[in-house]
Amino acid sequence: MDRSLNLLDVALGFDQKSSDSWPLSGKVVLIEDCVETSGSFVLHQLMKRVLSPDSSNALIFLALARPFSHYDRVMRKLGCNLSTQRANNRLVFFDMLMMKCPGENIRREDNVGGLAKLYREIQETVARLCSARNGSITIMVDDISLLEVAANGNSDHVLDFLHYCHSLTSESNCLLVVLNHEDIYTSMERPAFLLQMVYLADVLIKAEPLASGLAKDVHGQLTVLNKGITYCDRESSRNKLHNFHFRVKENGVEYFYPGCRS
Known about the structure:
single chain, 262 residues, alpha/beta, nine-stranded mixed beta sheet, 8 helices, 22% strand
């Protein structure tokens, strides 16, 4: 196995021999975290891999949680300059904090209003990027709960928007990555759009605190269910489920199995 790959890379299928250098093309990745254990670092790790110098992939990032300056600062520590990537047209950044709320003034007769208009912009961006480069295109949403806020609480509009984005995974072979804060909905019934995302997800990643409580050198555990991996032998099917610990450091993340460090 490639020594440059970490446990998360392996769980996502980057160790599988394939003619496709980007095994997540055409798939949906759902990242779920909680207040005690943020899963943002998984998003950052995927951003770094998408924008790696040895690939021609492109990233469309829909930011509802943080401004561009935040992601740029974090990614610089990981060795990735988002400002340069944006200038090179490998990154298209939708800063929703600086834009008019997409859910404002949504009228039933206005088919291009609100989130539908936002989707059309994403669709046009995907078409432009596809014509300009040969690599895969990734669409990231940070985070889905704030997308509901942007739609003024109208979960039907969010569901439609996510279905539109999901259609791009088959139409343009895009990767769709969505972050959700799972414990926001613990005191209420999960909305339909979230249940639909869990159903559609080829890869479900959960960041959780340790069952045994806080630890100085371990920040939490990751559970990765990769329903999208296709194995040659049936015995390897058990490897679709991965569970390991992690420690977030200043310039990266360390992954290791319980009871050992690597």
